[in-house]
From TrEMBL:
The keyword Hydrolase applies. The lineage of its organism: Bacteria, Bacillati, Bacillota, Bacilli, Bacillales. PANTHER family: ALPHA-GLUCOSIDASE (PTHR22762). This is Alpha-glucosidase. Residues 7-17 have a biased composition (Basic and acidic residues).
């Protein structure tokens, strides 16, 4: 329980952020044009300006006048700066620095920086910078009219962050998903600002504490860093999507994950022993509920020592992993950073002998209490330590494990500050820094060590890493889950805008604990949450010790079958989902998207927090309240097909939609082509027998093109051309005629299926449907025919089946009444 101390006037002094008198960055005294960058010498500070990419301006404000070192933190993935041609124009009062994309104007008298786009529109205006003797910097940035703020990583609240104030300080707060929580486990000091003139994002590469205040003033918003350089990247682009994509040019994109990690994950704190895990797996298969991963929480270890198994509870982990592997399950054990202080424990001994643990400046090791009791923490800022940690995962890979779950890596410590002492020193590759200066990087650096170690150990198989803590760029190494939520309807609701903003902050592979972690789930909440989770990028059911069990079958047959159907839908849409993951790995565009990302001109969607798009074609409107069997859905521009009823609706309109317990409202963009796999018990692209494309809404009135991505889902062959891009196009020819064509844009992976089926879905089956030059057969015959088309009258679908050879094809389709 909190006491009144939590409103103590000096409560912020602990991390040195007590308000002091600051000094404004004033007159620019000297401008030095260096090769590739500009150096502005101002009173007491130097400002380095550099285009690191044609659309990204870096501005580093540094207290020291030695500016030669331009290194960034591990957030930045862009290693070689793209040389950008820029012309400098200097006048008495200001400087202009122009590229083909941007014009930067700097006022010399009282430092101010503006960025204009090619049309001369003011996009970004940095009004002032004030620096303080204690290391703090405060920047004021202009607000505009018609503006909205997104991004900011993992934060509570609604989609549009205007009017909010958040801290960036990775924090383990138990049961934290409430609106007043300012800091969660992940910190992404990045804000995406759209306004009347355009859009840009600001990323402040500072892994100490920062505050984003979009609340206190209506003219400006304020960013405050606690210590260290104010290293700001202004990321521009024509659209929000461009800006997000450019942000991931800077901080990296998700690697294409192993396909199994897109399946359903089942977890519990904890499955206590081998028998329980084996039984769990058996139950999934007996009940025919698809599942790809089972997570092992801390009880698998010998008294919570990482890189060990409790041999009493798990007498034969290798056998267990093998047997379950044969049934299509992957085991994902938890690995925390705290290494138990125990002189008989090999990892601890090695860590001491090889000097891997974080220390105070005086040389004594920092010990903190976590699950194993007193523990030491590896210094992941040191490459040797990271390599050591990475190699230790051989313990897991030797027995067939391919996925690791990193937790408690804020790092969480059971003390009053809830983390490592701030004066602990990180070696940081020869540039030592205090934990205070580097706090937000700790989790990401652990995850990087884990990912790189696993990648080396698994050789030609892709690893899966899950993390709780992170910083900008963590997407390059791990999926993120949102930590310890509760089985509250409100927490499920809040997870949607949180995950949408995470997606817009580079974290494309993310999810929340389905069913809720703490507290007791109810039957209805489990159904609704499973329906939602099935269409989020990361899909794991996880719950805490002593809470109600929440595996899909815990609430009787009806709930089981509803959860099963929801999970099956995900498996049906795996090729669609996997293609979205591929696209995210190439472009950085998130897998789930707020409507505003696809429809930025629509004023109705700027703060729409309770609906989202999966890709651009599937609109999801989850149910967030008990006993609610209808909901209001906003459909954006265009025509939309209700997935459940096939009813067509006109967009730019609100509709009240039916949502009995078995239905979470889903709409498909009319004319969309969605690839489907037959529902399997686990993901394996090598066993798919038929690939289908569902086409929503005949008659077709608009051309549509879809490109499916395929590879083996496990190896790196796709990096050497071992992948396919298969394009399907539909073009209306007249009211009752269309042309369907398909071809490989790229072919390098041999698929397992021998036929493709195109399923034309309609509200009312057309009385006449002809595919020119093809044989019409009875529906029952289609399964045995190599090709042909048939009417599936029970579903109002026309199926066209063709063999899945390499050739391209064009089909002439005709339909109509009578
Ligand atoms: C933390 C994690 C949770 C896990 C628990 C025990 O609370 O967030 O997911 O189950 O630790 O390891």
């Amino acid at each position: 329980m909190q006491t009144s101390e939590s409103i103590h006037p000096d409560k912020n002094t602990e991390k040195g952020s007590k308000t002091q008198h600051g000094r404004q960055v004033g007159t620019v005294r000297q401008v030095l044009q260096r090769s590739g960058y500009l150096e502005l010498l101002c009173d007491g500070v130097a400002i380095v300006l550099q285009f690191v990419h044609p659309q990204i301006l870096r501005m580093r404000v540094t207290g020291s006048l030695v500016v030669a070192n331009t290194s960034s933190t591990a957030a930045v993935a862009l290693t070689s700066v793209v040389p950008v041609e820029a012309t400098l124009f200097e006048d008495e009062g200001y400087l202009q620095w122009a590229t083909d994309f941007l014009l930067v104007k700097i006022y010399k008298e009282r430092f101010k920086l503006e960025v204009y786009d090619v049309e001369g529109k003011l996009i970004y205006s940095l009004e002032s910078i004030v620096s303080f003797a204690n290391g703090q910097t405060i920047a004021q940035v202009s607000k505009f009219s018609l503006e909205h703020f997104y991004g900011l990583g993992e934060k509570t609240g609604f989609l549009d962050k205007n009017g909010e104030k958040y801290n960036m300080w990775n924090s383990d707060v138990y049961a934290p998903h409430v609106p007043e929580i300012k800091a969660l486990y992940v910190s992404i000091p990045y804000v995406l600002h759209t306004h009347q003139n355009g859009v840009y994002a600001l990323f402040i590469d500072n892994p100490s504490e920062s505050v984003f205040d979009l609340q206190s003033s209506s003219d400006t918003y304020q960013i405050q860093t606690a210590v260290g350089d104010f290293d700001a990247y202004c990321i521009t682009g024509k659209t929000m999507k461009d800006v997000i994509s450019n942000y991931t040019v800077l901080t990296g994109k998700i690697p294409l994950p192993p396909a199994w990690s897109l399946g359903y994950h089942q977890s519990r704190y904890s499955y206590m022993n081998q028998e329980e895990v084996v039984d769990l797996a058996k139950t999934f298969r007996e009940k025919g509920i698809p599942c790809d991963a089972i997570h092992l929480d801390i009880h698998y270890m010998n008294e919570y020592r990482v890189f060990t198994f409790d041999n009493g509870r798990f007498p034969n982990p290798q056998g267990m992993v093998r047997t379950l592997g044969e049934q299509g399950f992957h085991i994902v054990p938890i690995v925390d950073p705290g290494v138990k202080r125990d002189p008989r424990y090999e990892i601890y001994r090695e860590g001491i002998a090889e000097d891997h643990f974080c220390k105070y400046i005086e040389g004594n090791i920092f010990y903190g209490h976590v699950w194993p009791g007193e523990s030491a923490f590896p210094d992941f800022s040191d490459d040797l330590t990271s390599a050591w940690w990475g190699e230790k995962h051989k313990f897991y890979t030797d027995i067939g494990i391919q996925g690791i779950w990193n937790d408690m890596n804020e790092p969480a410590v059971f003390n009053t500050t809830k983390t490592m002492d701030l004066e602990v020193i990180h070696r940081n590759q020869g540039q030592p820094k205090t934990h205070f200066e580097m706090h937000n990087l700790y989790g990401m650096l652990m995850t990087r060590a884990t990912y790189e170690g696993m990648k080396t150990l698994l050789k030609d198989q892709r690893p899966f890493i899950l993390t709780r803590a992170g910083y900008a760029g963590v997407q390059r190494y791990a999926a993120v889950w949102t930590g310890d939520n509760r089985s509250f309807w409100e927490h499920m609701e809040m997870s949607v805008p949180m995950l949408l903003n995470m997606g817009m902050s580079g974290l494309a592979f993310a999810g929340a604990d389905v069913g809720g972690f703490a507290h007791d789930v109810t039957a209805e909440l489990l159904v609704r949450w499973t329906q939602l989770g099935a269409l989020l990028p990361f899909f794991r059911n996880h719950s805490a010790l002593d809470t109600a069990r929440q595996e899909p079958w815990q609430f009787g047959d009806k709930v089981e079958s509803l959860c099963k159907s929801a999970i099956q839908l995900r498996y049906q849409w795996l090729p669609y989902l996997y293609t979205l993951f591929f696209e995210a790995s190439q472009t950085g565009i998130p897998i789930i998207r707020p409507l505003v990302l696809e429809y930025p001109e629509d004023p109705n969607v700027t703060n729409l927090s309770d609906q989202f798009l999966l890709g651009k074609d599937i609109l999801v409107a989850p149910i967030f309240r008990p006993s609610m069997y209808k909901r209001l859905v906003y459909l954006p521009k265009g025509r939309w097909v209700n997935y459940w009823s096939m009813e067509e609706c006109e967009g730019e309109a609100y509709r009240v939609v039916d949502a009995p317990l078995e239905i979470m409202p889903i709409f498909i963009r009319k004319g969309a082509i969605l690839p489907e796999h037959p529902v399997a018990q686990s993901v394996s692209f090598q066993n798919v027998e038929t690939l289908s494309f569902a086409i929503y809404g005949v008659p077709l009135d608009q051309p549509y093109r879809y490109t499916l991505y395929e590879d083996d889902g496990v190896s790196y062959n796709h990096l050497q051309g071992g992948s396919n891009l298969f394009e399907v196009s539909l073009e209306p020819v007249s009211v009752n005629q269309a042309r369907l064509s398909y071809r490989y844009l790229q072919y390098g992976y041999q698929v397992s299926y021998s036929s493709r089926v195109f399923k034309f879905k309609t509200l009312k089956t057309p009385e006449r449907f002809v595919v020119r030059g093809m044989k019409r057969v009875e529906f029952a015959e289609l399964a045995h025919s190599e090709q042909g088309y048939a009417l599936n009258s029970s579903k109002n679908e026309v199926w066209v089946k063709l063999s899945a050879d390499l050739s391209a094809a064009v089909l002439e389709l005709e339909w109509g009444e009578g």
